[in-house]
Amino acid sequence: MSATTTDTVLRTGGCLCGRIRFTVSGEPDFPHVCSCRNCQRLGGGPLQSWVSFPMQGLRWTGEGGEPRWYDTFAGKTTRGFCTTCGSSVAAIDYGVDLIGINMSALDVQDDPRLVPVNQSFRGDAVPWLPQVPDTQPAAA
Question: What's the number of CA atoms in the CB half-sphere (13 Å) around residue 87?
Fold first, then answer.
């Protein structure tokens, strides 16, 4: 999968304590929520929200540098978190030139391009929370 960078908006974000800070630019890709058991356990809630950006538009800017990485799906996905406050900030699928940013780590979240279009792992979702409707256009 190749990412484009036509969106020139520079978005900022970081962890709860502020040691991990980042900027990211480029087209937001596939904003969604995930209900997998890993996201539930990592986030301490029923789901986490994610949006991907081109890896080339990412810069780690905080005093903590890059987050600590932990493989949640061995050889497939690694998640980045702050070693000071524990905030989950990012995820990378190996072999893809996109970085998943935890939407709650973004400083500004009122961009209409960051509204979730899908819910991953619906089968693991808690039964008491309504699911996010699929609004992603069908593939051509």
Answer: 22
Encode pLDDT of 17-64 as tens digits: 999 999 999 999 999 999 999 899 988 999 999 999 999 999 999 999
> Rg of the chain over CA atoms, in angstroms?
15
What are the distances in angstroms from CA 89 to CA 103, 129, 131, 137?
A: 8, 23, 23, 27
Is 19:63 a contact under the CB 8 Å cutoff? Answer: yes
> Global pTM?
0.88
